[in-house]
Design goal:
about 475 residues; alpha+beta; Immunoglobulin-like; Jelly Rolls; 5-stranded antiparallel beta sheet; 12 helices; 18 strands; globular
């Protein structure tokens, strides 16, 4: 049904491009509604292109390499200087392995981990999420070697390799393989041990694994990333989407895959061709930026509705074929590269009065013992600015409340968490989330690792009460 609607909706500028025989740049005037459809169909790709390439760029800065086919662990918990990804968290330590699968398969070596929660999340530019390994499935209890490849990996088609324990085919050539590890920060010796285990994770190409020289790196000339997703929509959307299309596998039977291809073909963007700015449609970047910001705001507002979140949650952060456009759009807006609900849930904390949280006010979140998040591993509650999804800067570097960041339960086993410019009298410092007193909207995300899905059915997400 949607593909039919897209074809009808873009029929007008299909005709316009046909008049030029697609040999010259064409000015395409799109309505806001047409642009909105393009933005919605593009957001998952734009968000992941931005995130994955920023990770690789950060790896390059930290290691002096090109940033790909290496694994870089967190050395410290994240703080407000983190600007590469919206709504990060600092209750787990990350290890990012950015994989370039074009010329050679890449093998990741994982040691055993002494942590009660570890998961491996993998995604290409399409933002379809795969979790091939997790402690929920009994993984990471022994060392393993895992091979990754794509449809375009040169000279390899998925055949077994002696000494490799698992083989995974990815939907794209450029992949983020993100390890999340609970660091047990409250146990210093265990924390050090886990850090050393994270440092032992290695990435090598199949050629190197077989004792051959590594193939020379072929620079693919990545289009520019944006500081925000809106920057890509406004500055170089077609160039980014051409690059993305060239490095992804599209399923002819998948409606979402075919809808995005149908939306871009009239604009001169199809898989397998080189980007040429003189031959693609000329579109209004300011209009795209404006509509993308509107789509982002609309989806952030929707996620404050607990009934809508319950509807989206089962389809969020899923493999291809197990999600839909509404769910993947919402999660791409709120913060990409997450985990499906059996691994983690990310409900937004709304206010009791239904209004956006703002740093001009103070708030309290109260939970009794029975109202605490139903986490089988652990939970955390993290504060962000709404506009960018970044931590709120403060001297204490306190951005969340939970087992790793610190918290104190009351005598009855419940908790009161304060969001305030100054710590209220009598409130444990562990339960205080500082804000800077200014007109700035705020978001709070509650992360529940390995939720009890039966208890979740009746559990109520806590709300923030504005203090007078």
């Amino acid at each position: 049904m949607y593909i039919k609607a897209v074809k009808i909706g873009i029929g007008l500028f299909c005709f316009m491009l046909a008049l030029t025989n697609c040999t010259h740049q064409a000015d395409v005037q799109l309505s806001d509604e047409q642009v909105k459809e393009i933005v919605k169909r593009s957001y998952q790709y734009v968000a992941l292109y931005n995130v994955n390439n920023k990770f690789a760029m950060d790896n390059a800065r930290r290691t002096g390499t090109n940033g790909w086919n290496i694994c870089v662990p967190d050395t410290n918990l994240k703080d407000h200087n983190m600007r590469d990804i919206a709504r990060p968290n600092n209750d787990t330590k990350y290890l990012g392995c950015m994989l370039d699968l074009r010329q050679d398969p890449v093998i990741l070596y994982f040691p055993a981990f002494d942590s009660k929660y570890v998961s491996l999340m993998c995604t290409a530019y399409d933002h379809y999420v795969n979790v091939p390994m997790t402690t929920c499935l009994g993984d990471f209890r022994k060392p393993e070697k895992v091979l990754f490849y794509s449809d375009r990996t040169e000279g390899y088609n998925g055949e077994p390799v002696e000494g490799v324990d698992r083989i995974y085919k990815m939907s794209g050539d450029f992949v983020s393989a993100i390890l999340r590890v609970m660091p047990h920060a409250s146990e210093p010796e265990r924390f050090k041990k886990i850090v050393s285990q994270m440092k032992a994770v290695k990435a090598i190409t199949l050629s190197e694994f077989l004792g051959k020289p590594a193939k020379p790196y072929d620079d693919p000339h990545f289009p520019a990333v944006g500081k925000t997703d809106a920057d890509v929509f406004g500055n170089n959307l077609l160039e980014v989407m051409q690059f993305v299309f060239n490095h992804l596998s599209f399923d002819p039977q998948n409606e979402m895959d075919q809808a995005v291809l149908a939306a871009y073909k009239p604009l001169g963007i199809v898989p397998g061709q080189k980007y040429d700015s003189t031959r693609v449609a000329k579109i209004d970047g300011k209009q795209l930026r404006r509509i993308s910001e509107k789509v982002k705001a609309e989806n952030l507002a929707l996620l404050l509705d607990t009934s809508l979140f319950a509807k989206f949650a089962p389809k969020m952060l899923r493999p291809k074929g197990q999600t839909d456009i509404e769910a993947i759009l919402a999660v791409s807006v709120i913060g990409p590269i997450g985990l499906p609900m059996e691994e983690a849930m990310y409900p937004n904390v709304a206010t009791t009065d239904g209004k956006p949280m703002n740093a001009m006010n103070d708030y309290v979140i109260r939970m009794t013992k029975e109202e605490l998040p139903p986490a089988r591993a652990f939970w955390s509650l993290t504060l962000y600015d709404s506009k960018n999804g970044f931590f709120i800067p403060n001297d204490r570097k306190k951005y969340s409340v939970g087992e790793n960041a610190g918290m104190k339960l009351n005598k009855d086993g419940g908790i009161e968490i304060y969001v305030a410019a100054a710590k209220p009298d009598g409130v444990p410092v562990e339960n205080w989330l500082p804000v800077n007193r200014k007109d700035e909207d705020l978001d709070i995300i509650l992360r529940i690792y390995v939720p009890d899905l039966e208890k979740v059915k009746t559990w109520k997400i806590p709300k923030a009460e504005k203090l007078k």
